[in-house]
């Protein structure tokens, strides 16, 4: 396995404002990382920094053997970064199928494989983006990112606002992606307990700084750590 | 405490299907949905098979056994939960019978099916809630690391809450999600005009 992503002492934010302070971590090809922390701690900003949508102030950003800091935002998807933003950003006036095919790169993931993973998208392929339910939109946003055949998939709170049944299905699919494909995944979530079993590493942010970086399994088994940073050591059943 | 995480996760997966089943029943009762017997059968398959074949046997054979040995005061609670498990097969048969009856009778059979399904759902929720609020906190508090090592090993065999050890329930779960109407699922089974 070779190194895919490396951040060294990265500072980033918006304009002059610094949100992320001194972030360092690295991922191998096919690796998985849970990016955790309460609201407003800088999770989305970290993904935006990778995508070039937030401002990188200093520190090394290496992706796939390249200095990411010199690659313009519009070139980063082409390098192999697939972003599923928190807002999902479906094109409302394109059909499902057009949403999937408007930007794609050749590779394992094609229309047929995306439809196998998300059979509902196949049924809805002629419907417009703005006719979709929240669950369908999230599936489309994920399918669209897969069509880019990214080396690293960035999922920003993909479970937010969805009914438990859909949450469970997406968790199963994300597990399949992290286990079976060579694609690396960074998964942002508020509900740590649900995603720690799906990932190898975890990074916890608190006000823009890393307060935990290590094995997901270690964090999962440490209720005190989980409670202190995330207030989610216990998970009640889904009702 | 791996086993506890797995039990929580299985409760969440099961809870999600129980909740969707209630949503579908409510919709049929209110006239928003037509009955879709493939969906009803799939949901019943999941909410009965996963507990009866997968989840309860692990609780009975490992967690409950250790708890009985370690926590004498838990005997009453364990008796109740074990009795629920033992009832499982009978309740499953009743629910399946009710579905067959409903399918044969048509609309006039709904009330009977609804009543039996409602009883099943209530019993399942009550059972899971008891485990979440009484059993698991007690286990967490009182079992020793050696107790957990044995329990964890047994639960580990089951890699995720959706699939079962050989993946037999994964496709079923997915089929349900893709049939249940929004906002609970992403399908349109029973939605008029769909
Ligand atoms: N576009 C923006 N411009 C300025 N500040 C922002 C912007 N987006 C987010 N922030 C600020 O950056 C901090 C981190 O936000 P964010 O990365 O969205 O957190 P999270 O995703 O962990 O909830 C917050 O204080 C937020 O107010
Ligand atoms: Fe039980
Ligand atoms: Fe249980
Ligand atoms: Mg965010």
TrEMBL record, chain A:
Q: Which Gene3D superfamilies match?
A: P-loop containing nucleotide triphosphate hydrolases
This protein's record includes keyword Cytoplasm: no
Q: Which InterPro entries match?
A: AAA+_ATPase, ABC_transporter-like_ATP-bd, ABC_transporter-like_CS, BCAA_Transport_ATP-bd_LivF, P-loop_NTPase
Alphabetized, the UniProt keywords read: Amino-acid transport, ATP-binding, Cell membrane, Membrane, Nucleotide-binding, Transport
Q: Which residues belong to any copy of the ABC transporter domain? A: 5-232
**Sample GO molecular function, one term:** ATP binding
Extract the SUPFAM superfamilies matched here.
P-loop containing nucleoside triphosphate hydrolases (SSF52540)
Asked if the keyword Lipoprotein belongs to this entry, the reply reads no
Cross-referenced PANTHER family, in alphabetical order?
Answer: ABC TRANSPORTER ATP-BINDING PROTEIN (PTHR43820:SF2), HIGH-AFFINITY BRANCHED-CHAIN AMINO ACID TRANSPORT ATP-BINDING PROTEIN LIVF (PTHR43820)
* Membership in a protein family: Belongs to the ABC transporter superfamily.
For this entry, the protein name equals: ATP-binding cassette domain-containing protein
UniProtKB/TrEMBL annotation, chain B:
> Where does the source fall among the domains of life?
Bacteria
Ranges for the Hemerythrin-like domain? 3-139
Entry's InterPro entries? Hemerythrin-like (IPR012312)
Q: What is this protein called?
A: Hemerythrin domain-containing protein
In its UniProt entry, the species of origin is given as Aromatoleum diolicum
């Amino acid at each position: 396995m070779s190194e895919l992503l490396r951040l060294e002492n990265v500072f980033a934010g918006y304009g002059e404002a610094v949100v992320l302070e001194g972030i360092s971590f690295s991922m191998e090809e096919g690796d998985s990382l849970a990016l955790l922390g309460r609201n407003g701690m800088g999770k989305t900003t970290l993904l935006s920094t990778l995508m070039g949508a937030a401002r990188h102030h200093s520190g090394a950003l290496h992706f796939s053997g390249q200095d990411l800091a010199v690659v313009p935002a519009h070139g980063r998807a082409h390098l192999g970064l697939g972003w599923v933003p928190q807002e999902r950003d479906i094109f409302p006036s394109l059909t499902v199928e057009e949403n999937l095919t408007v930007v794609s790169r050749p590779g394992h993931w094609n229309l047929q494989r995306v439809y196998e993973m998300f059979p509902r998208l196949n049924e809805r392929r002629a419907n417009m983006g703005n006719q979709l339910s929240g669950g369908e939109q999230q599936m489309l946003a994920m399918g669209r990112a897969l069509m880019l055949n990214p080396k690293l998939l960035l999922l920003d709170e993909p479970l937010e606002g969805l009914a438990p049944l859909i949450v469970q299905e997406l968790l199963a699919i994300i597990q399949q992606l992290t286990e079976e494909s060579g694609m690396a995944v960074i998964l942002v979530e508020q509900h740590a307990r649900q995603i720690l079993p799906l990932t190898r590493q975890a990074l916890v942010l608190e006000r823009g700084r890393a307060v935990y970086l290590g094995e997901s399994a270690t964090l999962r088994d440490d209720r005190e750590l989980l409670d202190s940073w995330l207030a989610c050591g216990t998970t009640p059943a889904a009702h | 405490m791996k086993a506890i995480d797995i039990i929580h996760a299985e409760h969440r997966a099961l809870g999600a299907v129980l909740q969707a089943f209630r949503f579908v029943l409510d919709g049929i009762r209110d006239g928003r949905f037509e009955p879709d017997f493939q969906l009803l059968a799939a949901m019943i398959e999941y909410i009965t098979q996963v507990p009866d074949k997968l989840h309860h046997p692990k609780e009975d054979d490992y967690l409950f056994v250790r708890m009985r040995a370690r926590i004498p005061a838990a005997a009453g609670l364990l008796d109740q939960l074990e009795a629920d498990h033992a009832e499982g097969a009978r309740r499953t048969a009743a629910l399946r019978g009710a579905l067959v009856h409903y399918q044969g009778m048509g609309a006039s059979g709904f009330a009977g099916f609804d009543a039996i399904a409602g009883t099943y759902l209530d019993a399942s929720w009550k059972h899971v809630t008891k485990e979440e609020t009484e059993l698991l906190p007690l286990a967490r508090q009182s079992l020793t690391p050696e107790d957990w090592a044995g329990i964890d090993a047994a639960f580990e065999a089951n890699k995720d809450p959706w699939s079962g050890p050989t993946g037999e329930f994964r496709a079923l779960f997915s089929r349900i999600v893709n049939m249940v109407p929004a906002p609970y699922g992403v399908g349109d089974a029973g939605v008029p005009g769909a």
